[in-house]
Amino acid sequence: MVGQVLIITDIHSKTDGSMRQIVMITFLINGFYNCFSQDLIKVKLLKEDSTNKVIERFESHAPGGYAGSELLLKNDNSYEYKVGTDLSNQFSSGTWKKKGKFLILNSSIQKDGLPIKIAYGSNGTFEKDFRIAVIKNIKGDFIPGFVLVNNDSNKCDPSLGICNESFDKINRVKVLLENGMSSKWIEVEKPSEKIILTLMTDVSMFKYVPMDDVKFNTRRNSLKRK
C-alpha cells in the first residue's frame, strides 16, 4: 500500500512540484485503504433496496466524505461490497452467511480462481509468431496480464510476444494479473498448437476485491472486520 502512494507522489513531484497535490493525493489514497478497516455502521434501507432484495445496509465514511464503503446483504444470501474515493474504487460480490457472532463473506471469484477458457487455433490476436494469443474477456476487450507456461518461473507477456524462458511444447498454462489474481493451472490438450485464453467475465478484475472467508464481528448496529 505504501509503495503505491510513494509512486504516485514521485510522479507528481517530477511533473509539477506541487506539494499541495502530493499531500492531497497521498491523503486520499490512505483514506481509501483505511476504509477496509473502519467499522461498518448499519443504516436505514433506501427505497430501491427492497426492489433489489437488500435486507441490510452497512456504510462507512471517512472524515470529510472523500472516501467510503458500503456492504449490502440480500435475502438470497448474496452480497455487494464497494469501497472507494474520488480517485479510485473497488468492489466485490458473492455470498454471505452468519456463524455465531461472525458475518462471513466469500466472493464469487477467488484470488486464484479466474474463470479462464482455453481454445486452440489462429482465431485470436497474436503478436508476430507468438503461440499464445493476447488475453481478452468475453466482450473481446484486451486484458493486460501474464501467462505462466509449464512452470511458475516462465512468465510470458502475450501482448509483447516474450517469455522469460524458451519452450518447445506448452503442457499447461496459468493466467496471472498484475494485482495478483490468477487462474488455476490449465492442462493443454494440444501442446503443439496456438492457444487462445479468454477471461469468462466482463467484470473488471483490476477493481475486484476477492474475499475468502473474510470475517466481520457483528455487533448490534455495526460490523468490524476481524
What does this protein look like?
- The protein has 226 residues and is an alpha+beta fold.
- 15% of the residues lie in helices and 36% in strands.
- The chain is built from three helices and 16 strands.
- The strands form three sheets. Strands 1-2-3-4-5-6-15-16 form an eight-stranded antiparallel beta barrel. A five-stranded antiparallel sheet has the order 11-10-9-12-13, with no helix packed on it.
- A hairpin with a 5-residue loop joins strand 2 (54-61) and strand 3.
- Residues 1-35 have low confidence and may be disordered.
Short description:
The chain has 226 residues and is of the alpha+beta class. Helix content is 15%, strand content 36%.
Notable traits:
disordered N terminus; 3 helices; 16 strands; elongated; alpha+beta; 226 residues; 15% helix; eight-stranded antiparallel β-barrel
Spatial arrangement of strands, main beta sheet: 1-2-3-4-5-6-15-16
H-E string: HHEHEEEEEEEEEEEEEEE
Distance between the termini: 19 Å
Mean pLDDT across all amino acids: 85
Q: Radius of gyration, rounded?
A: 21 Å
Number of DSSP-assigned strands: 16
Instruction: Enumerate the spans where pLDDT stays under 50 for 5 or more consecutive residues.
Output: 1-35
- Helix fraction bin: 10-25%
Q: How many alpha or pi helices?
A: 3
Shape: elongated
The share of residues in extended strands comes to: 35-45%
- Judged by helices, strands and strand pairing, the structural class is alpha+beta
Major beta sheet, specifics?
A: 8 strands, antiparallel, barrel
